[in-house]
Design a protein that fits this description.
The protein is mostly helical and about 400 residues long. It is built from 23 helices and no strands. The protein is about 65% helix and about 0% strand. α1 packs antiparallel against α19 and α9 crosses α10. The radius of gyration is 21 Å and the shape is globular.
Length: about 400
């Protein structure tokens, strides 16, 4: 599920970075006992791994989670062949999907070929994983296939992954042309995904249509204003300054975040967003302002501003739904898009436990399986790279044990 779809679900609740997979799988070389598996002993045989893969489709969630942990802790020479076979031949489409997700975490050179092979697969879950893989592992030879797929991908569960994948090829002229052309076309939900992706990947080619959207009152105004700030072109400042005077109250946190991202009076703008978030949590009837404030703070945290993430965790920790859902979603998105900043913030006193509870809820809402696997890979790598007894290792260990991966 994409973040934008999760936002839609959060709206119902309220109204009723990034690490890469290019590094080595450091934990595979460590002693099995040191990997701290939740069950005694690490898996050692192909039979154990194949049995675990078959459990990926079990209706019992704890069993599925246990099966995934078993495969993650297996030696690559055992796990990877079993996962490859499951992706190709397993009778259960969901098992194929989960096998493909876990395969991505082993950094095996065969993964790229498998991902390319499933791009036209009828299983939409497999296609979505492949699209997200090529967002983070760009291949010029694949880009024409991604662009061609736009004409047939209309699923709200799949098209967002495809859109972000194309946006990631930001230096390719055809990708630039394609993305700029999508800003003003289609349903608001899909346009929101396009606008967010252009901001995240600094799509300067789309400044003109994004500016037009930002000037227009409506559900996409926040997204467009925030995208202008993420792109970082200071020629957008006059437009944003005008919006500070004319846009509705609910859009003001996004506009403040955008101006901050342009490097203008960032501390004061962040302080304003913090107060806006605090007010909308405490005051009934300001759900739109709450969502806007949480998203604005999320954007600042994604950009590397640690204090913005601290604010989300501290203010979100004591909340309950409906306010809590939007804040948890913001924290979870930062974790997936900029894992290093999350790990750094969690080294601070008192941050680990409330953050993990918010993350647990966020991952349930987001259901970003591939992105979560990237998160798990990054955390496990951080564990093995951190010195014994260090704060960084303790944070990584807490995440592994409490999020049960």
């Amino acid at each position: 599920m994409t973040r934008c779809l999760a936002v839609a679900l959060v709206s119902v609740l309220i109204l009723g970075a990034p690490a890469t997979l290019s590094g080595t799988r450091d934990q595979a070389a460590a002693p099995a006992a040191a990997q701290r598996p939740p069950d005694p002993g690490a898996p050692s045989t192909p039979e154990q791994v194949r049995a675990a893969i078959d459990e990926f489709g079990n209706l019992d969630f704890p069993i599925r989670m246990r099966a995934a942990r078993t495969v993650r802790r297996a030696a690559p020479e055992i796990a990877v062949p079993a996962l490859l076979q499951a992706v190709e031949k397993h009778a259960d489409g969901y098992v194929k999907f989960r096998a493909l997700v876990l395969l991505s975490g082993f950094n095996d050179p065969r993964t790229r070929e498998v991902m390319a092979k499933v791009l036209p697969d009828p299983n939409d879950r497999l296609r979505s994983v492949a699209y997200t893989f090529f967002e983070h592992n760009q291949d010029p030879a694949v880009l024409p296939k991604l662009i061609a797929a736009l004409s047939r991908e209309e699923s709200e569960f799949v098209r967002p992954a495809l859109t972000r994948a194309i946006a990631a090829y930001r230096d390719d002229p055809k990708a630039k042309e394609t993305m700029a052309g999508l800003v003003m076309k289609g349903q608001a939900f899909f346009r929101s995904v396009v606008i967010e992706a252009l901001g995240d990947y600094r799509g300067t080619q789309a400044l003109a249509p994004l500016t037009e959207v930002a000037k227009t009152d409506g559900p996409l105004q926040d997204d467009a204003a925030l995208a202008l700030g993420k792109i970082g072109d200071k020629t957008s400042l006059p437009v944003l300054a005008q919006l500070q005077r004319s846009a509705p109250r609910e859009s003001q946190p996004s506009i403040a975040a955008s101006i901050c991202l342009l490097g203008i009076n960032c501390d004061s703008h962040q302080a304003y967003i913090s107060k806006s978030l605090q007010f909308s949590i405490a005051t009934t009837g300001y759900q739109d302002l709450l969502r806007s404030s949480a998203s604005a703070m999320e954007a600042l945290a994604q950009s590397g501003r640690e204090q913005a993430l601290v604010e989300l965790i501290v203010q979100g920790a004591p909340t309950r739904d409906p306010a809590r859902a939007a804040i948890a979603l913001a924290v979870g998105t930062v974790a997936l898009r900029n894992t290093p900043v999350l790990l750094k913030v969690l080294e601070r006193d008192g941050m680990i436990d409330p953050a993990i509870e918010l993350l647990r809820e966020a991952f349930d809402m987001l259901e970003e399986d591939f992105e979560e696997e990237r998160f798990f890979v990054t955390v496990r790598r951080a564990y093995w790279q951190a010195p014994q007894g260090s704060a960084a290792r303790k944070v990584a260990e807490a995440l592994v044990l409490k999020l049960e991966f």
